[in-house]
Design a protein that fits this description.
The chain has about 200 residues and is of the alpha+beta class. The chain folds into 2 domains: about 110 residues, Gyrase A, domain 2 (2-Layer Sandwich); about 80 residues, Aminomethyltransferase beta-barrel domains (Alpha-Beta Plaits, 2-Layer Sandwich). Strands 1-12-2-8-11-10-9 form a 7-stranded mixed sheet. It has a 5-stranded antiparallel sheet with strand order 4-5-6-3-7, with helices on one face. Strand 9 and strand 10 form a beta hairpin. The two termini are about 25 Å apart. The relative contact order is 0.25.
């Protein structure tokens, strides 16, 4: 596997395939496609009002590192009065318009649909692989479905959240750093068997 890494340009994504131990798959990672993304930032002194407006529209924002779901949207708190919002099956322009209508003069919206590689990571050994580099306690007593974090992972800044008890996680990684993150993930998961899909699209 190290030979493969050396043969790849550092700016290229790791090819889809199976890495590490053969015959088992303890960790899987799937690129999420057809996903619109935007940042939503409350204007000064307007956080509570923006949360109320979003909740009334069916999206119960939480001003904390939490993921919330509603009205076909997924919002992740990344800082005080700041969220990343995702919509599957939507265009970036459509999501931006929807959030601007929701926020009115309470917040600012920026389309981020082309800014990140988004990955769903799961499998019976997903937690064991991630703890090798994630600077967050992923013990199920400390990090549960709906919990989120914006933190470095092996020196790469990411935002991620736990989506269910399986556990499965969704990671948003800046495109510039996605190749390095995938190499780290493959190396960390290799002893469990690692399956990667979706990186060869487009």
């Amino acid at each position: 596997m190290s030979d493969l890494f050396q043969s790849l340009s550092p700016v290229r994504l790791l090819p889809a395939g199976h890495y590490g131990v053969e015959g088992i798959t303890g960790v899987t990672a799937q690129v999420v496609t057809n996903l619109a993304a935007a940042t939503l930032v409350a204007r000064k002194g307007k956080t509570a009002a923006l949360i109320a407006a979003a909740t009334a529209s069916g999206l119960p924002l939480v001003d904390a590192p939490k993921a919330s779901f509603g009205a076909g949207l997924e919002a992740v708190g990344t800082g005080p009065g700041k969220w990343q919002v995702f919509s599957e099956g939507s265009s970036g322009a459509a999501l931006r318009r929807r959030l601007e209508e929701l926020a009115t003069d309470l917040g600012a919206v920026t389309d981020q649909s082309d800014a990140n590689l988004v990955l769903d990571i799961c499998g019976p050994k997903a937690r064991e692989a991630l703890v090798k580099g994630v600077a967050v306690d992923l013990d199920p007593r400390a990090f549960q479905p709906g919990d989120a974090a914006t933190t470095p992972v092996s020196h790469v800044g990411v935002t991620f959240w736990q989506r269910d008890n399986a556990p499965s996680y969704r990671f948003a990684v800046g495109n510039t750093f996605a190749p390095a993150f995938l190499r780290w993930l493959a190396a960390s998961a290799a002893e469990y068997g690692f399956a990667l899909s979706g990186t060869d699209r487009g």
